[in-house]
């Protein structure tokens, strides 16, 4: 690390010197932390290892160390201090015991590489200190990793469905639980976008993921069930209509007077009547989630879903991803708000 990027402290300084604060500090930490290397320092306490990613007492995250300089954070501020002074001030003594819970956390390099992409969006969204972001990740690494792996596919299919079936998803009021879950979704799937998506789900204590995403899952599941019932009814009606019209043709051929009395069945008319009837169920299920549709709106939505041959597969993929994603993100939400 060049001192042209991080100004080095003067050798006689005894107090930390502020380098940056807020988002800029988070960006600098995210940039330099993943590649920083441990340093062995000879001190009054013997040989001390200064490990980037170690979390010390008082919410100190060690970002970079050399035999001369240490760069570390407190809250959302990035400081520098001579290495000897850093050890003297933060090394545990009988009168100033170190916070063992935090001191034992040393983020491995692969953890720091993951944090590189989530540091800034988590700092901005969750309002955690930079050290606590690292601590939260370390405590919940496996669950978070699974969530990070599932989120790209979930975002992709959710955005696909949201725009392909916009009459179903777009009008959902943002004040409802399902609407909250899909409001302001990122349109891309970069690591930063995924981190922002997860942070938004974790942010608000009053709307846990099992409530918001669970509402969306119920909307999808109910829609699948109603579309399947509608398609099944339409298939039966189609064959009934075809059989009836074929019968009319045969009767007209052999018994013209009788055949003439039989009306033709208009399948398209029967189809619209059936869709209108099943749309009542769709409107009722949406109403249970706070999403109120008129009869004509529900009919138009159901007609579009039934006429798209890929509807069921897409919605089932979305439902399956939600079922896998919700438990992990709910555990993270609980862990975050219990610790705070």
Characterization of the model:
The chain is an alpha+beta fold and 340 residues long. It is built from 14 helices and 7 strands. It has a 5-stranded antiparallel beta sheet. It is rod-shaped.
List the keywords.
340 residues, alpha+beta, 2 domains, two-stranded antiparallel ribbon, 7 strands
Helix and strand content put the structural class at: alpha+beta
Q: What order do the SSEs take from the amino end to the carboxyl end, as H and E?
A: EHEEEEEEHHHHHHHHHHHHH
Spatially, the strands of the biggest sheet line up as 1-7-6-5-4
| Largest sheet: number of strands, sense, barrel closure | 5 strands, antiparallel
**Total strand segments:** 7
How far apart the termini lie comes to: 34 Å
Q: What's the average pLDDT? A: 83
Shape: rod-shaped
Helix percent band: 55-70%
Indicate the topology.
Elements: E1 17-21, H1 23-32, E2 39-43, E3 46-50, E4 55-56, E5 60-65, E6 69-74, E7 77-82, H2 83-90, H3 100-103, H4 109-126, H5 130-139, H6 141-164, H7 166-169, H8 177-182, H9 191-203, H10 209-254, H11 256-261, H12 267-288, H13 295-307, H14 311-339
Antiparallel strand pairs: 1-7, 2-3, 4-5, 5-6, 6-7
What is this entry, summarized?
The protein is α+β, with helices and mostly antiparallel strands.
């Amino acid at each position: 690390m060049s001192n042209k990027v991080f100004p080095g402290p003067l050798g006689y300084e005894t107090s930390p010197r502020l380098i940056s604060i807020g988002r800029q500090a988070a960006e600098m930490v995210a940039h330099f932390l993943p590649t920083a290397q441990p340093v062995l320092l000879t001190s009054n306490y013997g040989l001390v290892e200064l490990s980037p990613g170690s979390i010390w007492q008082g919410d100190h995250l060690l970002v970079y160390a050399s035999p001369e300089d240490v760069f570390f954070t407190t809250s959302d501020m990035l400081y520098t201090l001579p290495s000897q002074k850093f050890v003297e001030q933060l090394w545990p003594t009988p009168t100033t015991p170190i916070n063992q819970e935090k001191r034992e956390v040393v983020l491995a390099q692969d953890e720091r590489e993951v944090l590189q992409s989530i540091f800034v969006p988590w700092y901005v969204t969750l309002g955690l200190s930079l050290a606590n972001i690292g601590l939260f990740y370390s405590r919940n690494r496996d669950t978070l990793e699974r969530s990070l792996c599932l989120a790209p596919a979930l975002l992709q299919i959710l955005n696909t469905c949201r725009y392909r079936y916009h009459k179903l998803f777009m009008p959902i009021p943002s004040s409802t639980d399902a609407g909250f879950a899909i409001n302001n979704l990122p349109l891309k799937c970069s690591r930063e976008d995924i981190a922002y998506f997860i942070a938004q789900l974790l942010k608000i204590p009053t709307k846990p993921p099992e409530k918001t995403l669970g509402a969306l899952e119920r909307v999808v599941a109910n829609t699948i069930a109603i579309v399947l019932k509608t398609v099944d009814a339409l298939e039966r009606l189609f064959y009934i209509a075809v059989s009836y019209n074929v019968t009319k043709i045969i009767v007209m051929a052999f018994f013209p007077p009788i055949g003439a009395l039989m009306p033709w069945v208009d399948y398209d008319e029967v189809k619209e009547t059936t869709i209108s009837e099943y749309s009542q169920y769709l409107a009722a299920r949406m109403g249970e989630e706070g999403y109120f549709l008129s009869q004509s709106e529900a009919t138009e939505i159901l007609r579009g879903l039934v006429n798209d041959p890929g509807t069921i597969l897409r919605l089932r993929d979305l439902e399956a991803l939600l079922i896998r994603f919700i438990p992990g993100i709910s555990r993270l939400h609980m862990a975050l708000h219990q610790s705070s």
